[in-house]
Amino acid sequence: MDVLQESFQYGASPLTSSSLSSPYNAYLFGSHISKSLSPLLHGILFRSSGASWNFHLVQTTEKDKFQNKLASLETIGVSITMPNKVTFGRLLDDLTEAAQVIGAVNTSFIRLDPSGKRRYIGTNTDCVGIREAVVQYDPTAISTANGRPAMVIGGGGAARSAIYALWKWFSPSEIYIANRLKSEVDDIVKHFTAAMPGIQLRYISDVATAQSLPAPTIMVSTIPDYPPSEPGEVICWQICERVFEKAEKGLLVDMCYMPSPETRLVKAANKAEWKTIMGTEVLVRVCVAQQILWTERLPKEQGVSEAVAAITQPKNAANL
């Protein structure tokens, strides 16, 4: 619930005693979102919180459409996905630390200024989803990861969320980064060195380096689930295999859940006796963090379990 407490530094709650029964709406803005699981998940979580609110998809990159929906008094919250995470974030009144440091917004919530005017605040709940997925799986993870290496696979926006989450909440000694392109890692290192002073990041460029380093306690993968083909992809996969082979086993969090949450990397980690968390669990925890900001209450655990089950059952596999 720390995300809720922190949100009130941006203003007062917009909710009243009758808000949960009011006809409020939340939206997801992005491209190619027709098969998004967000309506299903948020519908379940809204019911769990006792809110009779609705969640809608808006497939657009147009700023005017976003601002018009945002300004509606019936809008209670917004989710933002690619390719709008940077451009739409600039249209909001303020950004949380997480959004500023990561450089992308995936959630907007409403707070009121002293005069009662609505303020639209942008944040990033991807990092919270990673943290909560790990902590819910292993409540001791924050203490056991403290002072030991962690690892991130990938170099895009999700990798930045993972780096932020690991450094802020798990206090690793350093974070290894494996990625197909060194240039992306160079950008990440430059960005975080300025944004999070003191952060320790190490690029792993080859298998020999991976072999020589202590095993990470937590590995977060942010790459798509397809067979490696380019040289950089092949080396990245080999690095992961070498890490899995180490005597000391850790926890893999794979943020990918398409076309199946049981990715090649998850299967390889399981075979090597690593513990694993699938991307569907992270996705649900991201939605829970959004719900907390919008409804200002924690969805019941039964609702969270129902949400996880709804997207891991075989009938939904084709839409993951």
TrEMBL record:
Residue ranges of every copy of the Shikimate dehydrogenase substrate binding N-terminal domain listed in the record: 28-107
PANTHER family, sorted: BIFUNCTIONAL 3-DEHYDROQUINATE DEHYDRATASE_SHIKIMATE DEHYDROGENASE, CHLOROPLASTIC, SHIKIMATE DEHYDROGENASE
Top-level division of the source organism's lineage: Eukaryota
BP GO terms, sorted: chorismate biosynthetic process; shikimate metabolic process
Taxonomic source organism: Penicillium daleae
Protein name: Shikimate dehydrogenase substrate binding N-terminal domain-containing protein
Gene Ontology molecular-function annotations: shikimate 3-dehydrogenase (NADP+) activity
One Pfam short name: Shikimate_dh_N
UniProt-listed InterPro entries: Aminoacid_DH-like_N_sf, NAD(P)-bd_dom_sf, Shikimate_DH-bd_N, Shikimate_DH_fam
